[in-house]
Amino acid sequence: MHLDRIAIVGAGMAGLAAALSFSRVGIACDIFEEANDLVEVGAGLQMSPNASAILREFGVLEDLEKVWTEPREINLVSGTSLKKLAGVPAGDFARKRWKAPYGVLHRATLQAALLAAVKRNPLCTVKIGTPIRGTLPQAVRDITGTPYPLVIGADGVWSNARASVPDAPQPDFSRNIAWRFTIPLEEAPTWLARDCVTAFMGPSTHLVAYPLKEKAAFNIVAIASGISPGATWEAQASESQRGMLIKQFGGWNAEIIALLSRPARPTFWPLHEVTSGRWHNGRDVVLIGDAAHAMMPFSAQGAAMAIEDGFVLANEVTRAATLPAALAGFESLRTRRAAKVKARGSFNRFAYHARGPFRIGRDIVLSLRPPQSLAADLDWLYGYRVD
């Protein structure tokens, strides 16, 4: 089966990756983005080998490697004592074991690289300031006059495209908030490793820190339970909310408390998941990325799953006999994969936030695990390739 041209709703990570995936197999893509400007938003992200291998196929990895940081190790550290408990090797080890690099970078850096690749591609067009409302694909045809055999909903956790898929997933607030900010590298305390991703673990909370070379800054993400500010993905933190954060980390090391007290204007991101549900309508509409499977960041796979989605979907469309068969095959493959990643995230959440005897047991187990053993646990995740 071959399609001449498809429509994609949303020019975020999922939408741009889908466009590049379909253009690789000769299918033209029109991308419709509601925002008037594709501005630099967000914070840092981790790009694991399962995703960077796809970025290599897009032809964008080489440029990213010039500006991102490849951490030597992913460390697990006690948030109370600052003692290292365990580490998963990355750097050259990741390239050899999983055949692709592990990098950390600002979300805007990756977004800009994908957007530049889309703009260079003669099969791709991006139409900004073009909100899509109503039932798909008719809503897109009403705007363009063009009939599309397939419309991809890549418009995030608050997806409008989702309304065109019966029994689609629905947003669900996780009762957790990610507090995000950056600090200049020269101002970062010495106990923050300049060449590692470090996850500090504590009772019911955790904090992740890693350097962003292209921003000359450290990315800090503190995860804590909180109250939803409503249908938003980013908001400015008030002083009372900052006080709530400090209180939740009250039993942590004083150095970390001081770090959390520093930023002038931290942002907090309510963490939403989505419920289970259908990802396509059986004919001509399919959901990818956060629109289909928004998940907690405990396995650092949100962006990676979105990139995988587009690549798998394009692959299924080219090999299936009919479009309904392609959509069914995509949903079957990706729901299993997303469920396994979510399960890993739930396990990490339990381990990171363990209290009392569970925390003591966790620390003992981690201290006894050799790095290669911890890495082997991730082969199914980082070594994943789309055939």
From TrEMBL:
What are its cofactors? Answer: FAD
Q: Which Gene3D superfamilies match?
A: FAD/NAD(P)-binding domain
Q: List UniProt keywords, sorted A-Z.
A: FAD, Flavoprotein, Monooxygenase, Oxidoreductase
MF terms (GO), sorted A to Z: FAD binding; monooxygenase activity
The record, for InterPro entries, names:
FAD-bd, FAD-dep_Monooxygenase_BioMet, FAD/NAD-bd_sf
Q: Which residues form a coiled coil?
A: none
Any Pfam family the entry gives: FAD_binding_3
> Among its keywords, does the record have Repeat?
no
Which residues are in the FAD-binding domain? 6-338
Q: Where does the source fall among the domains of life?
A: Bacteria
What's the protein name? Salicylate hydroxylase
Name the source organism. Answer: Aliirhizobium smilacinae
